[in-house]
Write a structure and sequence with these properties.
Four Helix Bundle (Hemerythrin (Met), subunit A), about 80% helix, globular, mainly alpha
Length: about 190
């Protein structure tokens, strides 16, 4: 495991997950601001570690594995926390869609990698837009307070539904790409 700056940022993001969870649960008035800040910091490092790895020529198999894991863990913990404090189908539906898609696509990528076909389910621009939308919406929902009279809760929830829609669409695209590969695989005897 090469410990370089991009990988250190990714590991730092993983360390932030329990800190985020603890801060989110604190019974103090500033907890929502602090939780939103921690989540936003994690989101920025998600972008920054990939940028630095490419820019500094420090890409690694370890970093390629750990970066999406860190991203999915932080998003899943934040969504579960938000559903816990907003126990309604309005929150549960997009959260479930996003979490289930992340698990399914991760498994699909792993399977395709075993077949030597990982390039067919590589991250694309739609996935990057989906991730950015998730990060912005979750940050707004964590903050919860109005900004300049605009409800961050309402805007964040709207963006979360948009992220869930993009999540479903990107999953369909991944499945269609994988289906082409799987359709030409010989059937095994099971």
């Amino acid at each position: 495991m090469p410990l370089n700056l991009p990988n250190a940022l990714t590991l730092g993001r993983i360390v932030l997950i329990p800190v985020f969870g603890l801060v989110f649960l604190l019974p103090v008035g500033w907890a929502n601001l602090a939780a939103a800040f921690i989540f936003a910091l994690a989101a920025v490092t998600d972008w920054l570690d990939g940028y630095l790895a490419r820019r500094l020529g420090q890409t690694s198999a370890f970093g390629a594995f750990l970066d999406p894991v860190a991203d999915k863990l932080m998003v899943a913990v934040a969504l579960v926390a938000l559903v816990a404090v907003n126990p309604s189908p309005l929150f549960a539906l997009p959260a479930a869609i996003i979490i289930c898609r992340e698990i399914a696509v991760s498994a699909l990528r792993e399977w395709m990698a075993e077949l030597g076909e990982r390039a067919h389910v590589a991250v694309n621009m739609l996935g990057k837009v989906k991730t950015a939308l998730q990060m912005v919406s979750i940050t707004m929902l964590l903050y919860r307070e109005p900004v300049l009279g605009v409800s961050m809760h309402a805007v964040g929830l709207l963006l979360l539904f948009a992220a869930a829609a993009l999540t479903l669409w990107s999953m369909v695209l991944y499945l269609m790409a994988a289906w082409k590969v799987l359709a030409r695989e010989p059937q095994s005897n099971r």
